[in-house]
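#data-curation
PF: Archiving a pair of folding outputs for the training set. Convention for this channel: one message per protein, sequence first, structure tokens after, nothing in between. First:
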Amino acid sequence: MDKQKLLLHSCCGPCSTVCIERLKENYDLTVFYYNPNIYPEEEYIKRKENQKKVCDFFNIPIIDGDYSEERWLNFVKGLENEREGGARCERCFYFRLEETAHKAKELGFDIFGTTLTVSPHKSTLIINKVGKEIEEKCGILYLEESFKKKDGYLRSINLSKELSLYRQNYCGCRFSIRREN
């Protein structure tokens, strides 16, 4: 029996490690690196290079989405001062997952998902709620998952060390950068 074709949105190489490890046996997996929220562009490029390194290690194809922070900023306009993990983040999840669903349909995938649920700093409940809304809207299945289960985050840290991956110290957008006082 053929495996379902899964387009997996990935926020970064480190988070994708454990997700790919867990999914590659059961799905025909492709990673979609789509993160126009990341600031500055040099950071985006560094994270993309690490994502490619992970995909090469697992021998998984990668699709590079367009980088347009301006388009993302317009989408979250008015939410700039929201707390980390609040309404701006939920909107950001929607932005990236909706693009993933559209890309999955366009390219003939059966299902889409995301690595975002591996992070202990992200609400799995909110991410999966957004994914299911997009499933309904776009007519393509969403993989409802919590990759932080079974020590997923710890496993991602260990795999990142093994692969000598760059691990960022902020989520990605200009509003999430921790400022030293």
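PF: Second:
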Amino acid sequence: MGRVALVTAGTTGLGRAITESLVRAGYGVVATSRRSVSEVERNGSREDGQPVVVRWDSAERATDQAVVDAALFYFGRLDAVVLNAGPYHRTPVSIAETSDAVFAAMLEGNLTASFRLIRTALPVLRAGLHPRVVTVGYVGAGGALGWPQRGAYAAAKAGLAALTRTLAEEERHCGVTANMVCPSDIRAHDKIRSETSPDRPVGADVARLIGFLLDPDSDHVTGQVLELAFAPGSGPAQAGIAIPVPARQRPVGSTVHPRGWATPVRVEEARLEGDEWTYRVAMDGMTAWVGERDLSEGETP
């Protein structure tokens, strides 16, 4: 029997990329989902080369033990826990305007639920060889760096980084390693991609790093918060804050066609504003700055 990993939220998005990568590497995988019990039961039978899908809800404590028991039932062991699940408030909101409910949801889903599942899994992990815990954060979580308009989420992930490092110190004598992986923002359609991209990280990049940390030969890598991000290119990135990765810049001198303009024009200068490149163009003595969203359909960087 090969190694066995539990991946929370392992059926969609980034979790799916992690699950599929581990299955290809020969792991037995228990992937959690928040779907209804009936849907999970239809997928709860093990087939060779396929993950076992079980229901886990961060708000339901009883499901913590249930997913650990599922690993033991289907595979007879548990070697690694990958804590990928965690809610994120997509609507920007300042600390002053954050409600108690939103703040509590971020702490419960990202920090408290991870703590409970780690605590539940530890007795089983300690009994195995080369046990591993990997948590998932955001760029800057290890330094508790602020994230304007995402303060509740940032606070929860910074707490998870501290929890991960503490776990690494406390469980060294049991052979358990604990590390955090902090990817920069990966867009939805890139989360399950296995092909690498020259201009932005994809789900497979995160999966490969996690695979390295779970490897039995990685015994001496513990207590680390590893950032998976491209070189900073703006103020927020320099502060360690995860921001959307922009499309590749159009070269100065290239031709673009702004919507509503009679003819194409040449790019004279480029600058990055937030997550979008804007370009200075000129026609008939008039100069304007146009963004990617202002360009005609069908053009690509």
